[in-house]
Amino acid sequence: MIRTETDGPLRVVTLDRPDRRNALDPDGLDALSAAVEQATEPVVYLHGAGEAFCAGADLSVVSELDREEAVAFAEHGQQVARTLETYDGVVVAGIDGAARGGGVELALACDIRVGTPEATLSESGVSLGLFGAWGGTARLSRIVGETVAMDISLSGRVLSGTEAREVGLLSRVVEEPRAVATEIAANDAGALRTIKQRIRDDDSVETQETRAAAAFGNLIADSNLESVSGE
After folding, report:
1. Domain locations in the chain as residue ranges
2. pLDDT class for 111, splitting at 50, 70, 90?
3. Which residues partner with 52 through β-bridges?
4. CATH code of the domain made up of 2-184
5. Which tens digits make up the pLDDT trace of 69-103?
């Protein structure tokens, strides 16, 4: 259900259940979490096998849950999303084809979302009486703003890759999203971690500036700038 491979500084994590459009059941969530937790590379690239990125939660599982089990399943998905969000490096979601419901939520937990011209995204759960319970409602609003988040979540409409890029849900639309992950992975691993931490810091401006100065000092102390400047 989950495949991993290492390509230099890049860990490739593949959602590999194409017959179910890479929908995730509890075992799939556990496998995805483990794949990310075990990674040590500066950049993780998450994508789906076949014609979809991820259809979200496996509805054949969801339909059998009672209330308590549904709460546990939602919390399970939230934990996996946090694992992606807090990875000690950069996580790039490559969306080629459909991302629906929980698939969008997992992508929202990644640092960068890159789509192909064939990418489509939708918080489609509303038509089934559901919503993004893996943390997607909060992350979507933070990323695209409340007005757009309301529209996407309440309508359940499908966004093309182009529209998703226009509203900020995708950072780029390219033919090969993995190439973007490879491009990022070519940079300094320490700088990548530091930039992610600084951008995600939501403390006061003064506190952010103090932390930024300290982080910059740490990077300088560990750098090889003298060899670069001497070239």
Report:
1. 2-184, 188-223
2. very high
3. 98
4. 3.90.226.10
5. 999 999 999 999 999 999 999 999 999 999 999 99
